[in-house]
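User: Hey, quick favor. My workstation is busy. Could you predict this chain's structure for me?
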Amino acid sequence: MAEKWKKYRLSKVCIINPGKKEVSDIHEETEVSFLPMTAVSAQGYIISKEIRKLRQVKKGYTYFHNQDVLIAKITPCFENGKRAIARDLKNNIGFGSTEFHVLRPLEKVISKWVFYAISKDDFKNIAKSQMTGTAGQKRVPKRVLEEYQIPVPEIGLQRKISEAIETQFTRLDASVKALKSVKRKLDLYRKSVLKSAFEGKLVDAKYHKALIVDMVKVVYGKGLPKRERKSCGTIPVYGSGGVVGFHDASLIECPSIIIARKGSIGNVFLTKKKSWPIDTVYYLKDISIDIEYLYYFLISQNFKNTSTAVPSLRREDLERICVIYPKEIDNQKQIVSEIESRFSVIDKVEKTIDNALIKAEKLRKSILKSAFEGNLVR
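Assistant: No problem, here it is.
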């Protein structure tokens, strides 16, 4: 079937980035819809709309109307899949971020057909390879849209195929939503396990309290020596988000706990091998209780930003954390064992869910591929 479909450049079947002359005669106090980039989801939906006066948005923003197809042109929004069909706009008029391209279908195509065409991997890969600009500010040029070819069956078949895609995507979305709901519940359960552990509900023992500064030494991470910065060895280098590279330098040899002090404050990592924590983190040494017990206690804490500028955690605030613990090392290890036993079950379920989500995304791509090959409907 698909081999009979004639292919057209998008510039032949759509107006790309229509001009604002269409609204030049409309009263400036007319209310219109406004869509910042955050109003468009990576799943292809408009999440929310703002209402503004035409005079507020007529200059400096991107114009569109109902049934136009919007697609983000800037990185990382484009790679994340931000695109949508404009619907239910106030007075049929919309304005939005200057980082949108707009596709207005002409008589040969319908909005959904264009929307699904630009949702396919082959378009995304072509557009990504031709983005222009500097890192962090790369954009998809208009010419990429103009030159991209799509198959164009007759309008009735476009509607039929689009409806079939939508039906299958709706079922898929429901399954994905259910899986993500289970993941959120697992995360809550993980937190409840930690809460129970440090409320004395997992192991019967006598608990004590002490400031963390009384049982560890808190040390600032250091910048890498200049001679090591470009090396790529086997020793992990820890930043506030985790391992940021590998070098030959080694600052700590023994097991340690690393805590982010800037950026992603409160991220906690347990390292049992030599590593180099850089200057965005603290590391703990001379730990006088079971290191794994302390690690789980710390990840149960809600670290708070103590800076009004760059998010950061002051050492004095970290040192004031009160640790709840049983004095007997055997009890500490028993609590760790109970936590890990429960976490292992959670991890297995999460892995199953993650695999199912990966399969769902592959199925979504397969549905689109099948649709545009003419194999989704007969």
